[in-house]
């Protein structure tokens, strides 16, 4: 497997573009992804009971397991907009299909931005008309809200003698606590695979990637992850319980994990990525829950921002994770420094600890000594800027 430079349009047969239509002040705010042939597709969606019109619409059309395009707007969530919101979503799909000369039922729709405002459909219509089979980086910019950088990842691997390319693109800065939720993620691939197999893989891998990130504990009304595989690499269909299937699964997990980490790193106001690794749990699920409890703790996040090696906050988050533990058996490490072991704090090197907590990526290791389960979670520190951004978001 090799990581390469590229965008969501890098796999064979895919195109993308983005442009500015006036939903935001000046930055790109409308974009699309297009496959020259219909692709098998799968999706995972927000668990929030309040769902945007785009979620309701896209879940429905995905029942057939095929997509050929995705159209996305930022700056307006089209959530809590009633029946008009659903009509506007359907109109976005119809306008996109007309421009691309494809069937409307093959067009997924996603939105992100402020909740409770109707879409300005004249601007949306002009924006869709302005799109071309163009630049994938334009698409990456068009889906951003409070993000500070675009999120692209592309990998290639050889499966049964054929080069397969998979690309991912995402956004998400605040309201990040997936389950599945709070982000937009798009994955394209030129492999041949059934929609059923694709859905099973996406759902399974979401649990260990996107569902293991948290920025602020809020679950969005809008967000989704979609994957499209158009078969344009002209390889044999990937079958379950084969070596090719395992290679494809590894490829997909790598793309999803890279995207998840980029989204966590770019939390609103964040200065550090936090990775929590739990080992020695009774099972993998328990390990994942403990990791996510630690990385989601506001007290842990603020301690990391302040470069404070406060192991007590970490231990506290482990204790309220909802899974049985033995506090006397736990070991906690901040980077390469052991801070708690055998039920008591340890003496650590202050200078080395200061260096660890000054890094851009802070790693916390938790060892339970209760089994062989392991799991990871990702998040970011909680800063003054997070409060500032969200206090002024609507205005």
From TrEMBL:
Q: Name one GO biological process term.
A: L-arginine biosynthetic process
Keywords associated with the record: Acyltransferase, Amino-acid biosynthesis, Arginine biosynthesis, Autocatalytic cleavage, Cytoplasm, Multifunctional enzyme, Transferase
Q: What does the record give as the function of this protein?
A: Catalyzes two activities which are involved in the cyclic version of arginine biosynthesis: the synthesis of N-acetylglutamate from glutamate and acetyl-CoA as the acetyl donor, and of ornithine by transacetylation between N(2)-acetylornithine and glutamate.
Name used for this protein in its record: Arginine biosynthesis bifunctional protein ArgJ
Gene Ontology terms for molecular function: L-glutamate N-acetyltransferase activity; L-glutamate N-acetyltransferase activity, acting on acetyl-L-ornithine as donor
Record field: catalytic activity: N(2)-acetyl-L-ornithine + L-glutamate = N-acetyl-L-glutamate + L-ornithine; L-glutamate + acetyl-CoA = N-acetyl-L-glutamate + CoA + H(+)
Where does the entry annotate site (Involved in the stabilization of negative charge on the oxyanion by the formation of the oxyanion hole)? 112-113
């Amino acid at each position: 497997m090799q990581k390469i430079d590229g965008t969501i349009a890098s796999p064979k047969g895919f195109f993308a573009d983005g442009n500015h239509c006036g939903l935001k002040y000046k930055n790109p705010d409308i974009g699309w992804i297009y496959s020259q042939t219909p692709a098998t597709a799968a999706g995972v969606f927000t668990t929030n009971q309040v769902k945007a019109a785009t979620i309701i619409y896209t879940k429905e059309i995905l029942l057939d397991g095929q997509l050929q395009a995705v159209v996305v707007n930022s700056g307006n969530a089209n959530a809590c907009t009633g029946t008009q919101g659903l009509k506007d979503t359907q109109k976005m799909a119809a306008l996109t299909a007309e421009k691309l000369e494809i069937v409307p039922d093959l067009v997924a729709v996603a939105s992100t931005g402020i909740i409770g405002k109707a879409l300005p459909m004249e601007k949306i219509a002009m924006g869709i008309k302005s799109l071309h089979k163009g630049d994938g980086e334009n698409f990456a910019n068009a889906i951003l809200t409070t993000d500070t950088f675009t999120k692209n990842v592309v990998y290639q691997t050889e499966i049964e003698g054929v080069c397969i390319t998979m690309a991912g693109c995402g956004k998400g800065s605040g309201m990040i606590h997936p389950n599945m939720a709070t982000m937009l993620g798009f994955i394209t691939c030129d492999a041949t695979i059934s929609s059923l197999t694709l859905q099973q893989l996406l759902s399974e891998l979401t649990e260990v990637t996107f569902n293991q990130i948290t920025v602020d504990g809020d679950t969005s009304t809008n967000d989704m992850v979609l994957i499209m595989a158009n078969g344009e690499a002209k390889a044999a269909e990937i079958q379950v319980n084969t070596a090719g299937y395992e290679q494809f699964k590894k490829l997909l997990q790598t793309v999803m994990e890279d995207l998840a980490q980029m989204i966590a790193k770019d939390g609103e106001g964040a200065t550090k990525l936090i990775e929590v690794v739990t080992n020695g749990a009774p099972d993998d699920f328990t390990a994942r829950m403990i990791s996510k409890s630690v990385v989601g703790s506001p007290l842990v996040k603020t301690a990391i921002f302040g470069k404070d090696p406060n192991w007590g906050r970490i231990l506290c988050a482990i204790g309220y994770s909802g899974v049985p533990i033995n506090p006397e058996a736990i070991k906690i490490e901040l980077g390469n420094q052991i801070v708690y072991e055998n039920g008591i704090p340890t003496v650590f090197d202050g200078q080395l600890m200061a260096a660890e907590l000054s890094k851009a990526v802070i790693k916390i290791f938790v060892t339970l000594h209760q089994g062989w389960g392991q799991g990871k979670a990702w998040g970011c520190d909680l800063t003054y800027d997070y409060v500032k951004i969200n206090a002024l978001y609507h205005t």
